[in-house]
């Protein structure tokens, strides 16, 4: 089923006992050890609003932050444990994620965020996973830090405890946990499925009950309910069956003043998540045949940029609707604000709530789960977005340590007017600003927060929210009050910021991906002032930023099993001036290969990295450089490929290398270990983290990435919850234990030769027989998002090193370094 609806026209730095490194671009944080009193309980009311649409949250519960973190573990019996030193009983929380829908990957993002926020000495957290066939498993918390459910789906029987049925699973929950926190998006989560099972066994559950879920999950039924409750709604029609009635749909178009051939409508599944399967169609025929998904790029403004009267109407409507529908704990209500000039379509609808002289407020959807970790990326700024995610992840994992004060800071992108790094702008950020989706949103919010008129509006709205919440909650005995005030961001020049960092004896956590964060510039500025920082020093950063210099620095290690890839460097001007066929012949002759890999000499991650099969492919790539394209569209070359994100501005120099062929590793249920690998090529691509002090770096367990759709991983797939599968550690069916240990020793040799320290990531090819490594590149500030494979590697250690302890270790290494 699908429905059609009208498309509208419409604190600062610190550190002492620090520990944490990340990897990213314009994001850095500083930490100072402080002695603090008992952790305060905070309530974060988050109202998200788009310029033309709004999203409202209602949350009736509160969670503590800045408290010590409890160890999460699987519970397989009903034993009741006591909190050490507290004399009280542990609250046993069951987190249930996954599910059968396409949104189960988003569910992993959400459950990670919940894990990062609910922790304490009085909590015991147990994780459970529902696969696409509705089989239930008890899983280690480490599994939910996987890039995608596919990382462990194929091996669940070995990694987790499987329950014989959903009934047995719920019986276990009744004995093993005190309350269940479902984090399942879409089917079985938002449609009331899991809630109904829990209700049968009288198991307390966070969020709305099953009957209310069923009523609100169906978009068409929800729209009827909204209309019944007196709200203005968007005209819509329900289309069912494989052969819908075209004349009926055409009649609906006409009645709503839409051209039957070109009228613009939104088509969406009736029972799916807020963006799953949503598409825009034009005319009756297109609307009936449209099946292609679209992805929406959204900007959130908190507080909204509406007049205060409109904001009040939205809040009142969302609150009233929440009560009338019997929703519980929290929900996200989506809708539109249509100014008076654009709401002519809705003049004849039955609802009255939300109408005013300024325009009309329409509620369109009720979401009982919102993706807690959504990131909407702008194509030319991908590394800086990874930086924000890394910095946010860093803050969330360190906030539980009572002896630390963590203050996130944002290095704004260069405006290009000055080459002096010290004049760059740095903002210190509040907690709420860190949770914005993109660098651009954070910067906009900083500007608004320091604008007197916007600050006044924010203050006024905050007082209203505080007053309403106090009135509603003070009748509860458990309510002790709260404070949702937010410190204003503070603007510095980079030079001023470094001076302040020195004054407060800060340790700086660098997560500035690429740019001055990885080329030694920031390291030089900090080191000159004696300020400890995470990651390698000046010289190591400079060398590793340059892929050619990195290769030369380790080229003498071939006798020790460390190999490098032959390279040829060409300038952009040379490529533009000469015929592509001439350059192609020169390169293939010199490098003795038939397929090339091209990449910028000094850019991070996958930007500008492409596989070139012929001179025509090279001509397409050079044209993209000349035209400063943000990306090369998919399948522009002679063989199929994914979109290729290009650096901006285009690089001055590029490296050409022989493309290293590796055999495809396929996830398959037909194999005993769930994997198929021909193994004709004895090389596999690995990525591995190294941690420690200079000269004593230790290798984590390498990861093999199973690339399911192309040759080169995109930036999102590396760091933002992509679709590719990481095998950590490499399975014995592919790499022997002996070869694996030899490869780790050689990776450590590379790290120590380059004088790395703190934490870095090394990408290489591994010979599965000999353990030899063929070095690709070294990243001195790798991305440290929830989805990065390096978190998986720390969790694969024995015993597992959970993210908050891993980040603390990195911070301690930075504090102990000699500047």
TrEMBL record:
Pfam short name (any one): Dala_Dala_lig_C
Cellular component GO terms, alphabetical: chloroplast
Protein's name according to its UniProt entry: ATP-grasp domain-containing protein
Molecular function terms from GO: ATP binding; D-alanine-D-alanine ligase activity; metal ion binding
Signal peptide: none
Domain ATP-grasp as annotated: residue spans: 554-815
PANTHER family documented for this protein: D-ALANINE--D-ALANINE LIGASE (PTHR23132), D-ALANINE-D-ALANINE LIGASE FAMILY (PTHR23132:SF0)
Organism: Linum trigynum
Family the entry assigns: Belongs to the D-alanine--D-alanine ligase family.
A single BP term in Gene Ontology: cell wall organization
Alphabetic keyword roster: ATP-binding, Cell shape, Cell wall biogenesis/degradation, Ligase, Nucleotide-binding, Peptidoglycan synthesis
């Amino acid at each position: 089923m699908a429905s059609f609806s009208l498309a509208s026209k419409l604190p600062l730095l610190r550190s002492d006992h620090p520990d944490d490194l990340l990897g990213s671009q314009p994001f850095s944080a500083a930490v100072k050890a402080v002695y603090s009193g008992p952790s305060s309980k905070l309530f974060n009311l988050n109202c998200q609003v788009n310029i033309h649409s709004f999203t409202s949250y209602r949350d009736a519960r509160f969670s503590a932050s800045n408290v010590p973190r409890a160890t999460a573990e699987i519970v397989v019996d009903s034993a009741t444990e006591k909190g050490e030193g507290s004399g009280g009983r542990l609250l046993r929380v069951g987190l249930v994620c996954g599910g059968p829908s396409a949104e189960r990957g988003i569910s992993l993002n959400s459950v990670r965020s919940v894990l990062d926020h609910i922790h304490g000495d009085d909590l015991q957290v147990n994780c459970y996973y529902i696969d696409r066939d509705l089989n239930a498993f008890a899983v280690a918390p480490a599994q939910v830090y996987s890039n995608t459910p596919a990382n462990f789906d194929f091996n669940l029987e070995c990694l987790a405890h499987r329950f014989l049925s959903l009934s047995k699973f719920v019986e276990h929950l009744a004995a093993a946990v005190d309350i269940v926190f479902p984090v399942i998006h879409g089917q079985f989560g938002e449609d009331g499925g899991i809630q109904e099972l829990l209700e049968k066994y009288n198991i307390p559950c966070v969020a709305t009950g099953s009957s209310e879920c069923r009523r609100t999950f169906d978009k068409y039924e929800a729209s009827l309910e909204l209309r019944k409750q007196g709200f203005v709604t968007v005209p819509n029609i329900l289309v069912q069956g494989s052969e819908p009635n075209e004349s009926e749909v055409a009649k609906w178009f006409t009645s709503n003043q839409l051209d039957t051939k070109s009228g613009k409508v939104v088509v969406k599944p009736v029972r799916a998540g807020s963006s799953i399967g949503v598409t825009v169609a034009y005319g009756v025929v297109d609307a009936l045949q449209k099946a292609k998904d679209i992805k929406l790029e959204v900007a959130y403004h908190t507080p909204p940029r509406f007049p205060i009267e409109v904001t009040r109407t939205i809040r009142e409507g969302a609150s009233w609707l929440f009560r009338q529908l019997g929703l519980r704990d929290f929900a996200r209500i989506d809708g539109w604000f249509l100014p008076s000039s654009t709401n002519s379509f809705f003049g004849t609808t039955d609802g009255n709530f939300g109408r005013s002289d300024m325009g009309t407020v329409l509620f369109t959807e009720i979401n009982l789960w919102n993706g807690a970790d959504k990131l909407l990326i702008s194509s030319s700024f991908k590394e800086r977005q990874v930086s924000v995610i890394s910095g946010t992840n860093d803050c969330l994992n360190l906030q539980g340590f009572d002896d630390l004060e963590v203050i996130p800071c944002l290095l704004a992108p260069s405006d290009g007017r000055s080459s002096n790094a010290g004049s760059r702008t740095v903002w210190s950020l509040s907690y709420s600003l860190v949770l914005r989706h993109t660098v651009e949103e954070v910067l906009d919010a900083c500007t608004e927060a320091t604008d007197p008129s916007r600050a006044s509006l924010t203050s006024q709205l905050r007082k209203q929210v505080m007053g309403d919440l106090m009135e509603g909650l003070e009748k509860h005995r458990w309510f002790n009050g709260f404070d949702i005030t937010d410190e204003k961001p503070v603007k510095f020049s980079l030079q001023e910021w470094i001076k302040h960092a020195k004054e407060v004896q800060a340790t700086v956590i660098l997560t500035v991906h690429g740019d001055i964060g990885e080329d030694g510039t920031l390291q030089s500025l900090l080191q000159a002032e004696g300020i400890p920082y995470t990651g390698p020093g000046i010289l190591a950063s400079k060398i590793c930023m340059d892929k050619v210099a990195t290769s030369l620095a380790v080229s003498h290690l071939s006798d020790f099993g460390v190999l490098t890839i032959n390279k040829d460097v060409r300038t952009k001007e040379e490529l533009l001036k000469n015929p592509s066929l001439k350059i192609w012949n020169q390169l293939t002759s010199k490098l003795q290969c038939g397929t090339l890999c091209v990449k910028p000499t000094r850019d991070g991650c996958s930007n500008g990295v492409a596989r070139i099969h012929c001179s025509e492919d090279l001509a397409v790539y050079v044209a993209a450089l000349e035209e400063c394209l943000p990306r090369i569209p998919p399948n522009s070359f002679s063989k199929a490929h994914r979109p290729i994100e290009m650096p901006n501005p285009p690089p001055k120099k590029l490296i050409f290398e022989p493309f290293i062929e590796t055999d495809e590793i396929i996830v398959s249920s037909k194999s005993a270990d769930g994997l198929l690998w021909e193994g004709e090529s004895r090389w596999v691509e690995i990525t591995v983290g190294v941690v420690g002090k200079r000269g004593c770096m230790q290798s984590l367990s390498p990861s093999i990435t199973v690339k399911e759709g192309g040759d080169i991983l995109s930036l999102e797939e590396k760091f933002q919850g992509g679709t590719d599968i990481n095998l950590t550690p490499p399975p014995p069916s592919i790499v022997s234990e002996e070869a694996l240990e030899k490869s780790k020793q050689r990776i450590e040799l590379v790290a120590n030769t380059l004088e790395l320290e703190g934490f870095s990531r090394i990408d290489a090819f591994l010979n599965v027989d000999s353990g030899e490594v063929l070095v690709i590149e070294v990243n001195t500030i790798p991305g440290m998002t929830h989805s990065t494979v390096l978190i998986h590697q720390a969790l694969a250690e024995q015993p597992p090193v959970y993210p908050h302890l891993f980040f603390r270790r990195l911070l301690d290494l930075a504090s102990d370094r000699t500047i």
